[in-house]
């Protein structure tokens, strides 16, 4: 199915399949399998070996990398992460995405914008994707704490990585990968100057985390607080569109 053109008129063929495992996670899963087999076959310690084997399956599941169908419409901003919309607020973008970094490329403008925070539990897919098509203008890594990523202050205090993407028309969108309680490494797949498509894989965060997305000025969220997002598929907003959307949990 990868690379196949699908539409809302029924064109294309789809079939369910097991998701692949990202190469970043295969080594951890294989190490865990090897240790579990050591306890089971050589040491005959089943009380340790079987739980480790179950843990191995969990590691493979954590690094699963399913295919996604990405809507291709220039005005749409798609979710960079799987997970729960835990915060929607009006905030100033991070200084690292605004200040003059000496590259001659503008950052985000001053002034409050809508920030959508997506919390990823250990059960979510942790591959992150580009919210729009464009050029990676900035990639800024900042060391920090490992507090609960669901807290608002995690945006400023946790280990994080800011990414700025610029479309061909000059529209810029920033988003931030934030480490959580269990996360201990943010792994980028891109670098400044790379051209990415909407929904393209740009990195991952190991073992529980959060992604903040800063919508452009004049753009409201199309997702609701408490809604679940799918990376590369869920539309977070439409550039230049403002509208109150209400929903009821049930």
Automatic annotation (TrEMBL):
<comment type="subunit">
    <text>Heterodimer of a large membrane-associated beta subunit and a small pyruvoyl-containing alpha subunit.</text>
</comment>
<keyword id="KW-0670">Pyruvate</keyword>
<dbReference type="InterPro" id="IPR003817">
    <property type="entry name" value="PS_Dcarbxylase"/>
</dbReference>
<keyword id="KW-0865">Zymogen</keyword>
<feature type="active site" description="Schiff-base intermediate with substrate; via pyruvic acid">
    <location>
        <position position="209"/>
    </location>
</feature>
<keyword id="KW-0210">Decarboxylase</keyword>
<feature type="site" description="Cleavage (non-hydrolytic); by autocatalysis">
    <location>
        <begin position="208"/>
        <end position="209"/>
    </location>
</feature>
<protein>
    <recommendedName>
        <fullName>Phosphatidylserine decarboxylase proenzyme</fullName>
        <ecNumber>4.1.1.65</ecNumber>
    </recommendedName>
</protein>
<dbReference type="Pfam" id="PF02666">
    <property type="entry name" value="PS_Dcarbxylase"/>
</dbReference>
<dbReference type="InterPro" id="IPR033175">
    <property type="entry name" value="PSD-A"/>
</dbReference>
<feature type="transmembrane region" description="Helical">
    <location>
        <begin position="30"/>
        <end position="63"/>
    </location>
</feature>
<keyword id="KW-0444">Lipid biosynthesis</keyword>
<keyword id="KW-1003">Cell membrane</keyword>
<keyword id="KW-1208">Phospholipid metabolism</keyword>
<comment type="pathway">
    <text>Phospholipid metabolism; phosphatidylethanolamine biosynthesis; phosphatidylethanolamine from CDP-diacylglycerol: step 2/2.</text>
</comment>
<comment type="function">
    <text>Catalyzes the formation of phosphatidylethanolamine (PtdEtn) from phosphatidylserine (PtdSer).</text>
</comment>
<keyword id="KW-0812">Transmembrane</keyword>
<feature type="modified residue" description="Pyruvic acid (Ser); by autocatalysis">
    <location>
        <position position="209"/>
    </location>
</feature>
<keyword id="KW-0443">Lipid metabolism</keyword>
<keyword id="KW-0594">Phospholipid biosynthesis</keyword>
<comment type="similarity">
    <text>Belongs to the phosphatidylserine decarboxylase family. PSD-A subfamily.</text>
</comment>
<keyword id="KW-1133">Transmembrane helix</keyword>
<dbReference type="GO" id="GO:0004609">
    <property type="term" value="F:phosphatidylserine decarboxylase activity"/>
</dbReference>
<keyword id="KW-0456">Lyase</keyword>
<keyword id="KW-0472">Membrane</keyword>
């Amino acid at each position: 199915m990868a690379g196949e053109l699908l539409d809302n008129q029924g064109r294309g063929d789809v079939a369910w399949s097991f998701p692949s495992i990202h190469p970043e996670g295969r080594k951890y899963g294989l190490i865990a399998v090897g240790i579990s087999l050591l306890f089971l076959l050589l040491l005959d310690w089943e009380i340790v070996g079987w739980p480790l084997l179950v843990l191995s399956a969990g590691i493979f599941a954590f690094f699963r990398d399913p295919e996604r169908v990405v809507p291709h419409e220039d005005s749409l901003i798609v979710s960079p992460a799987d997970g729960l919309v835990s915060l929607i607020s009006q905030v100033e973008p991070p200084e690292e995405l605004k200040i003059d970094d000496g590259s001659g490329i503008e950052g985000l403008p001053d002034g409050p914008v809508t920030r959508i925070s997506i919390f990823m539990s250990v059960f979510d897919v942790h591959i992150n994707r580009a919210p729009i098509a464009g050029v990676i203008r900035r990639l800024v890594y900042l060391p920090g704490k490992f507090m609960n990523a669901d807290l608002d202050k995690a945006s400023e205090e946790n280990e994080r990585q800011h990414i700025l993407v610029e479309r061909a028309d000059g529209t810029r969108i920033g988003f931030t990968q934030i480490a959580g309680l269990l996360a201990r490494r943010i792994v980028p797949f891109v670098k400044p100057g790379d051209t990415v498509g909407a929904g393209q894989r740009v990195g991952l965060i190991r073992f529980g985390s959060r992604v903040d997305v800063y919508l452009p000025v004049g753009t409201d969220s199309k997702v609701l607080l408490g809604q679940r997002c799918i990376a590369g598929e869920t539309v977070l907003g439409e550039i230049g569109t403002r509208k109150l959307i209400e929903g009821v949990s049930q």
